[in-house]
Amino acid sequence: MENKYRKFYVEWWNIRKSTVWTLIAGTVLIVSLVGGGIWASRNNWFVPEQDLTIPKDAARIVSFEGEVRITRAATRETILVTRETYVGAGDTVQTQADGRAIIQMIDGSVYSVRPNSTMVVKDTTSFFGGKNVRVALDDGQLNVRTDEQPQDAKNIVEVADTENQLLPKTDASFNADPQANSGEIRISRGGVETTIGGEKQIIGENEFASIKSGRLSQRERLMAPPRPISPNNSAQLVDRGGGVAVSFSWADAEGASASNYHLQVSRSPTFASDALLVDRGNMSVREFRLSSLSPGTYYWRVRATARSGQLTNWNEAWKFIVVRSVGGVTIDASNWTVERVGGNVYLINGRTSPGMFVRSQGRETLSGPDGLFKLQISTPSIETSVEISDDRGNRTGFVISLRTGTVLRRY
Length: 411
What we know:
It contains one helix and 34 strands. It is mainly beta. The strands form five sheets. The chain has an 18-stranded mixed β-sheet that branches. A five-stranded mixed β-sheet has the order 20-26-25-22-23, with no helix packed on it. Strand 6 and strand 7 form a beta hairpin.
């Protein structure tokens, strides 16, 4: 009887030890290449670098938001900051109402130019190991941070009639008002050596001094901004018809005693003048009530004036959202594109319904009458979340690839 089962024969092969090791090494090499490629892709290694000729000793614009302009010293040409991510000696940096920029100098110090400010980089040179930085604040506010500075480094900020040399490990804030020929110096860490009229003195940690008509005031204890209480940051208030009444309240910072306060409520996170709903100063109380707010996103901040006349900085702005009580509408978006402006700065473009709020990485914009929107963000990641919402509380989130502009997922 024939066997109904098929028979299989296994033939053993003799394999050299060197062949085994070669196969193992090849497998490890392939895994390393694939893994390395994925890691490099996620860290933007394959994104082409900007092809710019950067002058020696130029300062680098680390990041920027909104409209920032640079006037080149050599040509007197004024340009908007896009891919021109450097500032040379003699250049002027000017921020608009929605603009701000962070600049790294050659000594490692970091300059934060606030909105509505004008700054001139008078000097940025390295010579025989020394590094010289000299900046003039013509108008607005400038925050400066230094860490361990190189030996023989000189970092000087000119404000009104003063020259202020920053010491190592310093956090300082400077304000300038060209109309009144005045300025303010606030030191929260470290110190500055201030020269005015040939006389030098040190303004140290947690100290404040003002400049007026070529004279420096007596140093006094730095007063912190008021502490906001209500409405809570990112609070959501429901409009059930007729608008919402909002009660604002705040408290003095610990150990501070203010004589009056200045409150601002705005539809814009930059508190642009045309978006202000409340701009009230000389308030003796620490509360304010605003009625009939329609659905939308609002921002508020407070600063205080001490009995000595010292004016604090604004507190970090808080926001709240007023939404309608109805919902259930699906929000969609299309025509997504992403443009890498430079460094970690991107422009996100798309189309949705008109009048929608578009938010990402703490930035916000409104879609236009045609539904188009453009939002500038800054992030080291290769993807970002974009939330689109209406004034009734409906919202949809999109996770966007910053390399391809495609929608990775919705939420």
